[in-house]
Specification:
The chain is α/β, with parallel strands linked by helices and about 240 residues long. The chain has a single domain, classed as Vaccinia Virus protein VP39 (Rossmann fold). It is built from 11 helices and 7 strands. A 7-stranded mixed sheet has the order 3-2-1-4-5-7-6, sandwiched between helices. A hairpin with a 2-residue loop joins strand 6 and strand 7. The two termini are about 30 Å apart. The structure holds S-adenosylmethionine. S-adenosylmethionine (SAM) binds next to helix 3 and helix 4.
């Protein structure tokens, strides 16, 4: 991502963006890619698009979605108020303009409250991999239900490699990177948090394995299921509701 892009995001989001960019630049890049994908989709549309974001966090992905243009109406869902309250502060200009609203429900509950075929795009970054496999399966069914025909699902996330040995090596390199960066920054508390969290991501009842995840979308009814921009354990997945 360009320095200019980083400066804009850092200016709005502040320290959270800078820290994530330092620890895991692939994660901030993935948010930008999610935003670019929305932009490409929105370019051909004349009507205002309804967009639902799952797991907005402090607002990095939300800002990428907002940067895609102003012909969107975005509902950002996150059930962690400490994270979402930061997004509300960072993105208050879009809240005031009416383009952005928030829900503090968990993703499944929030989706269950939405009518069938009522949303153009459901977008997310680094949220679905946190879900229990059983919960994720329910969320995927709900995403399919609430999308309109022709609607798009975009997810930039940790998609575990099907080759488990290769995945382990990629994860080991990732861990080495956390140690390198966070020891140099003297952020041992952040290092501890990231390592502990990684055990959750890699556990059998959470891990979002590429082939399983893509098959799950196909089984739900999605077409044009596509995984792109893979770098190490990160990838962008897109799917269309027919
Ligand atoms: C790693 S952060 C990603 C934030 C942002 N999308 C990004 O890429 O920087 C994951 C977010 O998902 C939220 N989250 C996790 N499980 C959730 C759930 N079941 N429903 C709604 N939000 C959830 C967490 O609170 C957290 O803010």
């Amino acid at each position: 991502m360009s320095k200019e892009y980083d400066a804009i995001f850092s200016g709005v989001i502040g320290q959270d963006y800078d820290m994530l960019n330092l620890i895991c630049p692939l994660a901030t890049q993935m948010s930008h890619l999610v935003g670019e994908t929305l932009k490409n989709y929105a370019e051909n549309k004349t009507e205002k698009l309804t967009v639902v974001e799952l797991g907005g966090g402090t607002g990095i992905t939300t800002l990428a979605l907002l940067s895609a243009g102003d012909n969107t109406q975005i509902l950002s869902i996150d059930n962690e108020p400490v994270m979402q309250n930061q997004a509300k502060v960072h993105l208050h200009a879009w809240v005031e303009s009416g383009q952005l609203t928030f829900s503090q429900d968990d993703a499944l509950t929030a989706l269950q409250k939405l009518p069938d075929a009522s949303v153009d795009v459901i977008a997310s970054a680094y949220t679905l991999h946190n879900f229990l496999n059983t919960y994720r399966a329910e969320v995927v069914s709900e995403i399919f239900r609430v999308l309109k025909s022709g609607g798009l699902f975009i997810n930039g996330d940790r998609y575990a490699l099907d080759d488990i040995s290769q995945h382990t090596r990629a994860t080991q390199e990732e861990v080495a990177g956390y140690f390198r960066v966070l020891i140099a920054e003297k952020k041992l508390d952040v290092l501890e948090h990231w390592i502990i969290h990684l055990f959750n991501d890699e556990s059998e009842n959470h891990v979002m394995r590429q082939s399983v995840a893509l098959q799950q979308l196909q089984t739900a009814g999605f077409i044009n299921v596509n995984l792109a921009h893979r770098v190490a354990v990160n990838a962008l997945v897109m799917a269309i509701k027919p």
